[in-house]
Amino acid sequence: MTETTSGPARSSRKSGGSGKGGAAKSKGLRIERIHTTPGVHPYDEVEWARRDVVMTNWRDGSVNFEQRGVEFPEFWEANAVNIVTSKYFRGAVGTPQREVSLKQLIDRIVKTYRKAGEDYKYFASPADAEIFEHELAYALLHQIFSFNSPVWFNVGTPQPQQVSACFILSVDDSMESILDWYKEEGMIFKGGSGAGLNLSRIRSSKELLSSGGNASGPVSFMRGADASAGTIKSGGATRRAAKMVVLDVDHPDIEAFIETKVKEEEKIRALRDAGFDMDLGGDDITSVQYQNANNSVRVNDQFMKAVENGEKFGLRGRMDGEIIEEVDAKELFRKMAAAAWVCADPGIQYDDTINHWHTSPETGRITASNPCSEYMHLDNSSCNLASLNLLKFLKADDEGHQSFEAERFAKVVELVITAMDISICFADFPTEKIGETTRAFRQLGIGYANLGALLMATGHAYDSDGGRALAGAITSLMTGTAYKRSAELAGVVGPYDGYARNSAAHKRVMKQHADANATAKRMDDLDTPVWAAATEAWQDVIRTGDKNGYRNAQASVLAPTGTIGLAMSCDTTGIEPDLALVKFKKLVGGGSMQIVNRTVPMALKRLGYQEEQVEAIVAHIAEHGNVVDAPGLKTEHYEVFDCAMGDRSISPMGHVRMMAAAQPFLSGAISKTVNMPSTSTVEDVEEIYLQGWKLGTKALAVYVEGSKVGQPLSAKKKEADKATEQAEETIREAVEKVVEYRPVRRRLPKGRPGITTSFTVGGAEGYMTANSYPDDGLGEVFLKMSKQGSTLAGMMDAFSIAVSVGLQYGVPLETYVSKFTNMRFEPAGMTDDPDVRMAQSIVDYIFRRLALDFLPFETRSALGIHSAEERQRHLETGSYEPTEEELDVQGLAQSAPRTPAQPEPVVTQAPSVEEAAAKEAPKQAHTSAELVEMQLGIQADAPLCFSCGTKMQRAGSCYICEGCGSTSGCS
C-alpha cells in the first residue's frame, strides 16, 4: 500500500498529521452542495442593510463600544449584530483596517479554511474546494452553526491562529513541574482561554519529602495558582479566569481539598458582616482564596460502591500507592455534598465512566477536564469546538406537521467536521506540548445549541421520555456522522498519529456508541426517523473505520455555547432548557420589547390547539409570565412549558436525566450545572451525585439557589447601605460628643393595636400576632406553632419574647429583617400569602410579612421586599413605587399606531401571534434574565456583567451576558 503526503512540507510544529496509521489514501473528498446554488455566491441571495452598533453600560450611561454603518443581512437580530460586531470584528475601530461587514469576517475565516484544505490535499478538485467555501459561508451567514470564539478572533489575522478554547494541562510531583504549571496556565489565561488539570500526582501533606520534612500538598500549591489567575485576570480582562482543578478521591489530602471553598465562604460571610465589600468584583473579595477555579473530585466505581455499601475506603500515598489512611466512604461523600450545598464546589467527575469511553487509553488515562467539564481527553491537549443551531433543522409543512431534517443535519455535520479538522493543520497552540498532543490526536468537539427551544417547539417537555428520546437521537446522529466523516478523512489524509497504538480501544468505543444507539428507546414520529438515520451512520462508522481508521481521537462534546449562541440568535444555550417563557428582545432601530418566546406558538400548534386558542394562551403568558390557568390550555400540557426558572421550574433530576440521555452518544462530556431550589438539602445533593453515577454521566456540578455570598447587590441596595452607614456615623458622632448611650425599654400600653395573620409555610400552619405602639412602630410579636407544650411551640414562644424585648429596647425592625430573611431550614416552600409566595423557612416568612406590614416602602425596597401589587407595578412601569402619573398609559399606547408595523387583526401564523403578545419592555430590564426577575418576582443567582452591568444568565457551567456577549468562563 502506498502513501501520499497530506500537504506541502511544513515544520513538525505545523504538521497536519502524518497518517502513521498506514491506511491508503484516496485523491480527496468530493463535497456535496447542501444549501448553495451553482454560479451564485451565498452573499448574493440575501438582502443586506447598514446598522449602527452603540453599546452602553446602563449603570453610568457610558459608551462601551461604538461602530456605525456595519453591514449585516436584514434578517439578523439586533443583539446578534451587536455581539458579532463588538466581539469578532478585527482591526482598531475608526481605522481603515477595521472590519465593517459580516462578509469580511466570514471571508477571513472560510478562505483561510479553504486554502489550508487545498494545501493539505483534502479536496478532490478546485471545484470541490469552492463548494466547501460557499457551503461554509452559507452556514455561517444563516446562523446554522458557529465555530467557537477563538476561530472568530484569530483565524485569518496576523496574530497566532489559535482555534481552541479548551485546554488540559498536567503537573508532576516536582517544583519544576509546578512552576511550569503556573506559567502555562498564565499564558492560557492571558489569551482569554481556560484550562484544567489534575493535581493528584503531587504528594500529600501526610507524606515525606526526600529531605525528611513533610510535603506541602496540592492544596497549598492551589493558593499560588489561584493568586496568579486572579492577577492575570485583572491585568488582562475583567472577567474571572476560567480554570478547573481536579483531585482524585483516594488522595490523602482529599478532605482539605473539599473544604477549601467552604472555609473561604465562611470568611466571606464574616467579612461581609463586618462591613467589608465582599460582592463579586468588590474591593475586598481579593483577600479570599480559591475563588478563580472550579473544583471537582474525581471518584471511581470502587469509591461509589463503598458509599452504597457503607464501607471503608483507602487513601493512597502518591509515591508508592500504598494505603496510608482509611476513611468512611459515606462520610466522605457527605462532606462533598455538604460543601457543594454551601458553595457549589466541588463538582464530581466519574473516573471509570470517563475512561470506559476513552479512545486512546494506551497513550494515557483521562485525568482531568477543561474548566466547563465538557472536554475530557489526554493531558497537555486541546479541543476546538463548533455548535449547530438545532432549531434551523426543524421543518413544518403547510398542514403544520413537524419533522427534524436528519439528512440535511448530517450533511452539515460532515461539512463542519471537515472544516474543524482542517483547522488543526494551520493552528497555533499556547505550549509546545499541547501542540504536539493535539496534532497527534486531533481532538474535535462538535456540539449543538437550542435543544431546549427545539423540544418546546415540538411539544416535548424537557423532563419527559419523548424529550430525552429526541435529544438522544439527535446527539447520536451528530456523533455517528462526525465519526463517519472522520473515517472518510482518514482514507484521504490518514488517521491520527496515535491511532495505530490505540486502534483496538478506538474500535471498541465505536461499538459501544453503536450498541447504545441500537438499544435506545424510540418514542414518536419525530425521534424515530432520526434514530434510523443514526443507526445507518453508526453502521458506516464501523465499516469505514475498520478499513481506514479514524482521523480524530474525539469528535463531539456539548459546550455552553455562550457567546456563539447569542451570535446565532439561539433561544437556549447548549443542552439547557428555556430560561423563561417571556424574553427580552432588542430592536434594530433601538429600544426593546418584551415578547413571548417564538417556540410557544409552535408548541401549541404541535399539541393541536387552534389559532384562536393559541392567541389567547400566548396573551396570557405575555401578561403573567407562565401558563398556569391559561385559557383553554390542558393541565397535562403544562409540563411542555416548564423552564429553568419560575414556579414551574424543571426538577434537578430532570436535568440529570437529560444529561444521561445524551451522554452515551458523546465523545466527551456535557457542560451543565444542575440548579437546585433553595429548599434543597445536603441529602438532595448526595442523591444527585449518586444518580449521576448510576445513570452514566461523566461529570456533574450543582448549584443550590442562594448559596453563594459573593454575588453583586443591586445598585439601589448599595446606595441604601451607603446612606444608612452615613446616617449611623452622624448619629454615632453626635452621641459620642454628648453622653454615653444606654438603651431604655419602652413598654407598650395595656391597650394596643394589633394584626393577627394566619399562614402556612411548606404545609406547616401557624399564627402570628403583631402589636404596635399607638403612635406607630412594632412593639411585640407572638407566634403560635404546633401544640402547646411541644418543643417547637416552646421555641417559638422564646423566640417571640426575645424579639419583642429587643424591639422595646429600640432594636430597629429593619435590623431583624435583614438578619432573619433568607434564613434557610425546614419547613420551607410555598406559602398561602400572595405577597410572599415562597419562603426559605418560617423565620424568613415571618420577617418578610412584618416588613411588608410595618416598614416604610423605601426601607423594605432597599432590602428587596415588595408586595405582589408592587411587583406587578414594577413589571408594567419599571418602578415599584406608586407615582402621581399612574394612569392607563399602557392601554392608550397599545391602541396607538406602532412602528414598524401593527400586528394584523386576524392571526394566521405563529410569528404574528408572538408579535401580538409583544409589548414595550420595562425600562429597568436590559436582558431576559432581568426581565424574568421582574416578571416572576424572583431573584436569579447570577453575577452582573463587568462590561455592561446587566444581569448574566447561566450557560452550562459558566455565565453569559446576553447584552454584550461577555462570558465568565471559557465559552
UniProtKB/TrEMBL annotation:
Residues 1-10 have a biased composition (Low complexity). Belongs to the ribonucleoside diphosphate reductase class-2 family. Residues 164-703 form the Ribonucleotide reductase large subunit C-terminal domain. One of its GO terms (molecular function) is nucleotide binding. It catalyses: a 2'-deoxyribonucleoside 5'-diphosphate + [thioredoxin]-disulfide + H2O = a ribonucleoside 5'-diphosphate + [thioredoxin]-dithiol. This is Vitamin B12-dependent ribonucleotide reductase. CDD domains: RNR_II_dimer. Residues 752-852 form the TSCPD domain. Residues 53-143 form the Ribonucleotide reductase class II vitamin B12-dependent N-terminal domain. Keywords: Cobalamin, Cobalt, Disulfide bond, DNA synthesis, Nucleotide-binding, Oxidoreductase. InterPro entries: RdRp_reductase_class-2, RNR_2_N, RNR_lg_C, RNR_NrdJ/NrdZ, TSCPD_dom. Catalyzes the reduction of ribonucleotides to deoxyribonucleotides. May function to provide a pool of deoxyribonucleotide precursors for DNA repair during oxygen limitation and/or for immediate growth after restoration of oxygen. The keyword Nucleotide-binding applies. Residues 1-29, 874-910 are annotated as: Disordered. GO terms for biological process: DNA biosynthetic process. It is an enzyme of class 1 (oxidoreductase). Its cofactor is adenosylcob(III)alamin.
